[in-house]
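Q: Got a minute? One more chain.
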Amino acid sequence: MRGLTILVAIGDAERLHAALTFAAAAAASGMAVRVHLHEGAVALLRGAMAAPGDAARAGNGLPTLPQILDDALTLGAQISLCQGGLALTGLGIDQVDPRITAQGPLGLLTTLGDDRLVVF
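A: Always. Here it is, folded:
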């Protein structure tokens, strides 16, 4: 089965939520999944994470942004943060979930193999 690599290109919490939802679903199906947050998307992990639709999600039994992040990681999705994004946001890799790694674009692309690449 081909793997899935998801690139979250901008700092939009709703896009990140959607990307993580697809990552969690793919991981639950047994697919190898990687999610990479590029530059501005890294800032979404700073402080209290929230997406605009989280109140409605919580009220309807759906996972909020922090919950879907944990779900994706628990299901085995590999999540990496852009090294440049870490520098731009002043966020240290030691300030995020220890299951999350740092990686640059070259590292991501050279290990892409035959994964499907989806950009959010």
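A: The first strand starts at residue 4 and ends at 8.
Q: Perfect, thanks.
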